[in-house]
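User: I'm curious whether this sequence folds into something compact or stays loose and floppy. Could you predict its structure so I can see for myself?
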Amino acid sequence: MRKSLILLSALSLLPLASCGFEPIYAKKQGVPSGETAYLQSALNKVSIANIPDQEGVILRNELIDRFYVAGRPETAFYKLDVLPIREIRRELDITVGAEATRAQLEIIVPFVLTDILTGEVLLRARAETFASFNIIADEYATRVSERRTRENALRDIARQIEQKTAFTLDRL
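Assistant: Here's the prediction. I'll summarize afterward.
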């Protein structure tokens, strides 16, 4: 029984060997091994436009940290425009006294990747995440918790934007 299970498992992996799957973080031909990875060199060609509001500043700084590991680009070929961040706060876990004990943030961030030379829109997408925090009697602690939750959510949004941008640039 065990041998047949192992054989079945091995046979189920066979189709993956010929599917053409190629990780986007793999190095590409033509990129010298001493240089940064292909993905990082592609992301380093993207100019990140300013994003309005305090949350936008946090998100832009996260994107800069992710895209520009080797420093800002001297010449950018692509432009990333992040539209205003939309945040929805919902109160959850309502007590008998009609007080919320938990809240959820939904953050939605539309963005556009454009080829600077041609003006062609390469990617129009949005990143979205949910995060929640506790509401406690201490208002200061609740505000700190909400701020940390928002920052973590924006970090997740930056990761999503990085992945979608990298995937698009990898297909060019």
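Summary: The beta strands are 46-48, 78-82, 86-94, 100-115, 121-134. The chain has one domain: 2-26+35-170.
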